[in-house]
Amino acid sequence: MRILALLAVSLLAQFAISLAAHAGDVAELEILGFTGNGGIFAFEEYGVQDGSGFPYANRYYIDTADDSFLEGTPIRVRLDDENATLDAARLAARQKGEAIIKQAELTSNRGITAGFNPVTELSADPFRMVVNPRPIFSPVDDPLEFRLDEIGMNDTEACQSLGEINGFRLLRIEAKDGGKTELLHEDKSIPKSRGCPNGYRIGAVQTFSMQGLSAYAVLIAVRQYGFEGPDYRWIAVTGRL
Question: How far is Cα 124 from Cα 105, in angstroms, rounded to an integer?
Fold first, then answer.
């Protein structure tokens, strides 16, 4: 019996090591919200970096009128200490963010998470999301539909030896006008901040209303080559309605 017990412990240890070796780093997503007029959208991603074990927290502040970052952002914090806590990294990022937009304003205008598919969701379509933008039934708004296409970019500098590399295209499909499509974003090249991505999926749609539906953000999970396995980070495409 003792031999069997030791064998079981050994197998469990090997299994744990195998999982750790292929765990990767999936950043958590925290939707912070909008400014009071819907003009700015903000979100946070955070986690523990694979390989180094360093905690990080990144905050993004985006002008919904032209889908551009506010000056001085994104805010990126990484604490290069294995003993540092994730809470400490998040607090440091939040404190820096207060100089951009007060947390209280974002919290008061969080908007509606009209759709959400985490990277662990296996049954959802990663390239299409259709939502009723507000929880009003029967709906008073047209559905919001978004579709994502991956674009092969294997010639990306610094990524050529890694295998498949992709950019993306994001479309909005109009419910009226016979399904007219609007191009929201199309990569011409991959920014260095995105690393070496090989895949994408629509992870969430956040909407904001004043008198009526006025702004949205499409959160996209980016799959990258990581040190211990695939890493996931978040980006957003925003717009006004």
Answer: 33
Task: Say if residues 167 and 151 touch (Cβ distance below 8 Å).
Answer: yes
Query: Which are the contacts of 233, defined by CB distance < 8 A and separation ≥ 6?
Result: 27, 45, 194, 195, 221, 222, 224
Residue 60, φ and ψ in degrees, nearest 5 = -120, 130
Closest to 30 (Cα-Cα) out of 185, 207, 240, 219:
219
Instruction: Report domain extents, the chain.
Output: 27-101, 111-241
Kindly report the pTM of this predicted structure. Answer: 0.89
> What are the residues whose beta carbons fall under 8 Å from the beta carbon of 240, sequence distance 6 or more?
38, 64, 65, 214, 215
Q: How many degrees, rounded to 5, is the angle at CA 126 between CA 157 and CA 29?
A: 80
70-114: per-residue pLDDT in tens? 999 999 999 999 899 999 999 999 999 999 999 999 999 999 999
